[in-house]
Specification:
The structure is a homodimer. In chain A, strands 1-2-9-6-5-3-4 form a 7-stranded mixed sheet, sandwiched between helices. Chain A is built from 13 helices and 13 strands. The relative contact order of chain A is 0.11. Chain A has 2 domains: 2-170, Rossmann fold (3-Layer(aba) Sandwich), CATH 3.40.50; 185-357, Dehydroquinate synthase-like - alpha domain (Dehydroquinate synthase-like, alpha domain). The first copy, chain A, has helices at 25-32, 45-56, 76-88, 103-115, 129-135, 173-190, 192-206, 210-230, 245-255, 262-279, 285-297, 309-317, 346-357; strands at 2-8, 11-18, 37-42, 63-67, 96-101, 121-126, 140-145, 148-155, 160-164, 322-323, 326-327, 329-334, 337-341. In chain A, helix 4 (103-115) links the parallel strand 5 and strand 6 (121-126). The first copy, chain A, is 47% helix and 20% strand. Chain A is an alpha/beta fold.
Chain lengths: 362, 362
């Protein structure tokens, strides 16, 4: 078992990675204590992995709340269903919400835990690569609003993140690829050598070789934990973890949540960010080629849908990274180094979206 | 102008108290900066005090969101209305929500600010005595759930609390009395000399003598700020500020939110807590008399409604202060000193509720 500690002042959040961890009674007992438990999962994941978690919980009773599967259900209504279930079960402030599933389940259950009785404990048990390397780590929780992704949310650190890598065995290829987008993003913003390693290991990762997967998860978590430890609430440096996400959120909202997977939209967004970095004179053109090529090899879309330039600009206007009216984006200075900045030519952005997203509406 | 600083590690929240502050352009400019502003108020307070705030904001544009008046509107639906308005106005992460009103407006607007884009700035402008001495101070935000009060919420410190004591001039007597309940509570848990001062000043307070009101607000805020500074998230000592609130919440939920004012329910709850403290051998019987007498002189109910013992016990069972299945209550050791404890005889509680709330249902 690999262990990473995300340190946040006096608090810390252990991230544990290994095979078969969901069934580990000692580990689950250590992290759940004697709390009342509610397991939140979805109708796809629960049949596959809830039996193993039940084993890990060693016959302890818990309340279940199963949501329908999919990003389109990442709504305030779903969070409210969990809260209703917590009230119904008369859970007290000392209870724990266990999120068993991908990023959507982790974000909704985390938000319900953040707001039930002004915050109860949450244990993240991510079952998708994307959640294991990104969304379950760092305490961002939230749900979507018709006006944009994650517009309602809270920062709420989990008590622990326990990643059972066996869960990747049942993950559809498309979701594996979406997770690789966030692994590649972590490398791009912080570690050029890790990016080069991914270029070498991409076929092993696609073939789900365990040692390659554990290596990628571990390093992506280390990078994220290091950045979040310096800036938990995204006042500054943490923003670089949003590489590709402003464009990605615009794509997701523009298409309607759930059409593209989050990681797919982020992949196309990363290419746009890299392209804009090059057109702003920050990044060498050859580096854009490496970025595009690795994402394509990972089975990800590297061009945005043709939503139209003006629609994309409007969607970017509602993005959380707008500050004082100016759009801030994460741009690359090299492979392994990124900056969140409003310092890029507006016309370069417009031209880029003209070229890639089309001039007209869909 | 009086100033108290609530210190929370590196953060701090200034509390400013004085006449005419809503119209102070310099003060408002200092605390709002150049942010996009949304003013949240209700249909009762806005006609009275929004014109003065408009003067203080010196012609700056802001978006308004007016909610209906009353505790029955302290719902997730109201918080969602604010968030919808923030999205609609395309407010970014650097915006500020200004709560102009009593505890209900402050709690809902604070919760919307806590969760919009994972947290934006909130300025509290309390216009009721209760909000000025208690609910606007300390960062508790939230809304009610059919299953109980404040079951959905967040800790989110305001950027500042600005109390214009002129607003008390338009406050109905019943609301003034409700606010005095929280002033008396602050004295009971932390400062016996302040309680004695309140015994002397109660007629001046009821006559709304400015110097008495400012003195009471200032000392109640100091007490609360001192306790919150030691325990922002209510892991321990802050719980004593809930004196009377477990019973009070049970009364409010049992009657239906909005029937009794929060302060009225707390007053009856404080008497129950004092009575239970005496019956558990913690508090002298004469002290219970002083507590009951001051609350009665303040125009507050000192007996609970006859909801019935069993209903009260059930309502207490869902309270946030239940831990590991045992009911914890705030009890008085003397006037000026309180403890949050599960150490009281269960049958004393049952007998007390029998005597005061009745054996049958309403």
């Amino acid at each position: 078992m690999q262990r990473i500690d995300l340190k946040l002042g006096a608090r810390h959040c252990p991230i544990l990675i290994g095979r078969g961890l969901l069934a580990s009674q000692a580990l689950l007992a250590e992290h759940t204590g004697v709390r009342q438990l509610m397991v939140v999962s979805n109708e796809t994941v629960a049949p596959l992995w809830l039996p193993r978690l039940r084993e890990g919980l060693a016959g302890r009773s818990f309340v279940q709340c199963l949501l329908p599967d999919g990003e389109q259900h990442k709504t305030l209504a779903s969070a409210t269903r969990i809260i209703d279930a917590l009230v119904e079960a008369r859970m007290n402030r000392d209870c724990m919400v266990i999120a068993l599933g991908g990023g959507v389940i982790g974000d909704i259950a985390g938000f319900a835990a953040a707001t039930y009785q002004r915050g109860v404990a949450c244990l993240q048990l991510p079952t998708t690569l994307l959640a294991q390397v990104d969304s379950a780590v760092g305490g961002k929780t939230g749900v979507n609003h018709p006006g944009g992704k994650n517009l309602i949310g809270a920062f709420h650190q989990p008590a622990a993140v326990i990643t059972d890598t066996d869960t990747l065995g049942t993950l559809p290829d498309r979701e594996l690829h979406a997770g690789l987008a966030e692994v590649i993003k972590a490398a791009l913003v912080a570690d050029g050598a890790f990016f080069a390693w991914l270029e070498q290991q991409i076929d092993a990762l696609l073939a789900r070789k365990p040692e390659a997967l554990v290596g990628a998860i571990r390093r992506a978590c280390e990078i994220k934990a290091g950045i979040v430890a310096r800036d938990e609430r995204e006042q500054g440096p943490r923003a670089i973890l949003n590489l590709g996400h402003s464009f990605g959120h615009a794509i997701e909202t523009g298409l309607g949540h759930g059409k593209w997977l989050h990681g797919e939209a982020v992949a196309a967004g990363i290419v746009l960010a890299a392209e804009l970095s090059a057109r702003s004179g920050r990044l060498a053109a050859a580096e854009v080629g490496r970025v595009r090529s690795l994402l394509a090899r990972a089975g990800l879309p590297v061009d945005p849908p043709r939503l139209g330039r003006d629609r994309m600009l409007a969607l970017l206007g509602m993005d959380k990274k707008v500050e004082g009216g100016r759009l801030r984006l994460v741009l690359l200075d090299s492979i392994g180094s990124a900056t969140c900045t409003a310092d890029f030519p507006r016309d370069a952005l417009e031209k880029l979206l003209d070229d890639s997203a089309g001039t007209g509406a869909t």
